[in-house]
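User: Predict the structure for this protein chain, please.
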Amino acid sequence: MVPSLPGISSSPRARLFGSVSLFLLTFLVYLRTLAPGVYGFDSAELAAGVFTQGVIHPPGYPLYLLIGKLFTFLPFGDVAYRLNLMSAFFASITVVILFFVIEMITESPFPAWASAFLFAVSNYFWQMALVAEVYTPFTAFLAGDLLAVCLWRKTGFPKYLLLFSLLYGLTLTIHTSGILFVPAFAWLILGTRHWKSSHWRLAGVMVLLFLIGLSPYAYLSLRARAYLPIDYSRIYSGVDLTTLPGLWWLVSGRAYAMFAFGYPWRDVPTEFLNFTAYLWRNFLGVGAILGAIGIAWLWRKSWTWAVGLLLMFMANALFYVNYRVMDKDTMFLPAYLIWAVFVAGGITVLDGSIKLLIRKGWLEPRLKNAGRILPILFIGLGLILNWRWVDMSDSDGYALFAKKMMSETPPHSVIIAPWSSAVVLEYYQVVESQRPDLLIVNRSRRTVARYYELWRQGLPHEEILARINLEEVGFINRHIQQEAVYAVEYDPVLANRFEYLPEGPIFRLAIP
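Assistant: Here is the predicted structure, written as structure tokens:
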């Protein structure tokens, strides 16, 4: 018999209390630490994309754009804040659904509640709950997929297969990396006594519902027919999304193909060690240990569930371990989500072990509740330690930088900026209608698009970079004769051709 927290047992009323308490407590934490406005990197780009319903970087995230548009109608804050709030909302939704999923898999109510809460305050997930990003809507839909599978395995009702098919299609319109989980879901759906030969008759309906779930991608093709201020596929890559090849180029993420499996084999072990370090940090070490114990526990309880979840975990981990980008620590969020299920198994073992030691007289009877108190202490530890790392309530640096640039830059200037700064400037241009005269050059996006084009031609890395640098110098030379050209960051390559003259937080480029 698994002990439960008062108010959290397997009864419907207790499940309601557990889910409501998780949502309210986590949402209050996220609200208190939420970014107050625009943030850099993908966040500002997503905010501008939602506002314009434009075409952002591959794979386009159409369902995020549509749901995000609804949040922009909230009557408070600016557009960026409303989308930050959307991330917090879906983060709490993720935690609630995860609670139901874990409880159904482990049949351990309190460990499910505690593990879901520990995941809620884990480092990388908490970060993504505070700014406009696709990750918490993605984890919410992914958890929903798992819940539909849980209900199918528990009841055998075909309606849950149909629900899963639609949800899974929608999941892929939030983030296409969900396609990695096809083997795991196939295993979990087919590997149960409920699946009978008669269910193959549902296959056609399931495929139809899955395709309906993918239909938001057609929306991007429709939007591409209009002239949009945010249309990265057209501006940077010259791709026409109104054609099927162009739409497939976007959806398949072909522009980033050079990053997939981008490490030589000798570097893969190091990247795997980096991933284990991310996992350790995300769950404060303690959760990593409990998760490892929980895998063994779940294997004994239900080896089919253990195999299915491990397939999901490894699919996400192995792909992104081999994905050659710098900012991939949060790309492992699906793996962290699955690990939370294993953590619940570890908490169950911890509680049972304490009870066993008490029965054998090796521990004092007064410690009988330690198996419930310790996980709550872990949650408190996560709150205290991670709050300092992730709190974004005072993160207004990007906004202050952009406002300064918008107010002090001469008319018709050219601003060459890296990805994180360029998207913020674009946000103020497009969303706030400030300084349409400025030419904002997103150096990172231009470089990646051009690199892909030359990489596809089979050119070596060094030659690609040399060509890109030469083209960039030519671009600056064409503009520097008539307009002021500014660089947000110092670059030694450009410094060989131009003088870097400090002007406030940036540099004005000049011909020597």
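Residues 76 and 165 are 36 Å apart (CA to CA).
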